[in-house]
Amino acid sequence: MSIAAIAPRSSGVVVTPTVAIADQTTNCSLWLKLEYCQPSGSIKDRFVWFMLDDAFQRGLISPHTIVAEASSGSTAIALAVACARLGLAFRAFLPEGVAAERLMVLRQLGAEVVLTDPTRGVAGAREACQTFSRERPGVLLPDQFANPLNAEAHRLTTGVELIRQVEGPIHAFVCGAGTGGTLAGIGQALRDAEQPTFLFRAYPRAGGGLDGNPEIRDDVPGIVDGLSELFDDEMPVEPVLVDWPDVVYAARHLCRLGFPAGLSSGLNFAAARQVAATLGAGHTVATVLCDRMERYFSSVMFR
Q1: Where are the beta strands (DSSP E) in the chain?
Q2: Against a cut of 0.85, is the pTM above it?
Q3: What is the C-alpha to C-alpha distance for residues 61 and 177, in angstroms, rounded to an integer?
Q4: Are strands 284-289 and 172-176 parallel, antiparallel or unpaired?
Q5: How buried is 7 (Cβ within 10 angstroms: 0-12 exposed, 13-18 middle, 19+ buried)?
Q6: Beta strands of 82-197 (E only): which ranges?
């Protein structure tokens, strides 16, 4: 099958359901968008196929193109799925120490995996990927942390779907952020629709630091503080800190409720409940369940 035959963005993304949960503790409605239902198992399909379609339309993709991206896992898996379908080579740059199941999935999909210095984290993987793209001709570099198409994909698809699916106004949208594309894009869609929505960025908290500031844990894949270049300074976003045991409990609780999601979804769910408690009874709070639980088999979630 040719690239042209399957390149349109609709070929790799589905409209996911959004379901409501009546939170008995806060007497609020929590709306969960089930992005783990995307073909690759995560919300990252949104950006990946949107970006690939744009690159195809601009003539940046040929049968000899090498796609290269730095990731903690989910974006790499989404790209590996897409590149396998398009017949393109894909090279994933990840910090050494990422979950073994993610590496197994990538290699099974035909991706070439490059492991980078674990002490440098995703930032180091991104630098290595950028160096590779400069030195090797024919490389397509999505650069999810800075590519405005990341947020635009969510503004035009995820956000629009969420607004249509939620009954009544959305008083708050809560989401953790790595690239920031989901929060920035959905936030803009809510602004475009003139929704009365407060935006909250969720962080997993380990405890108090020596300087009095909270210590943010870095073991929720995809939640990387300081790398995103996609936030609009004019878009007010409030932080919400979730204690680490509550993140783990929330992820396990989601599974018991029939939502097979992982730790990043647990962070979002726990943060949404905290925001609901702050807003008070009768409000509507929305969030996304980002990816599937199978990517967390080696994590504390399954111990």
Answers
A1: 18-23, 28-34, 66-70, 89-95, 112-116, 139-140, 172-176, 198-208, 214-216, 237-243, 284-289
A2: yes
A3: 29
A4: parallel
A5: buried
A6: 89-95, 112-116, 139-140, 172-176
Instruction: Give the pLDDT band (50/70/90) at residue 7.
Output: low
Reported as a single tens digit per residue, the pLDDT across 237-246 is 999 999 999 9
Instruction: Give the residue from 212, 206, 211, 302 showing the smallest Cα distance to 263.
Output: 302
Q: What number of other Cβ atoms are within 10 A of residue 239's Cβ?
A: 12
Residue-wise pLDDT tens digits, 82-118 = 999 999 999 999 999 999 999 999 999 999 999 999 9
Six-digit token pair at 79?
Answer: 């790209």
CA pair distance 244, 205, nearest whole angstrom: 6
Domains in the chain with CATH codes: 3-41+147-302 (3.40.50.1100), 45-140 (3.40.50.1100)
The predicted pLDDT at position 235 comes to: 84
- The residues near 220 (Cβ < 8 Å, ≥ 6 apart) are 176, 204, 247, 263, 264, 267
Dist. CA 270–CA 249, nearest whole Å: 9
Distance (Å, whole) CA 28 – CA 265: 19
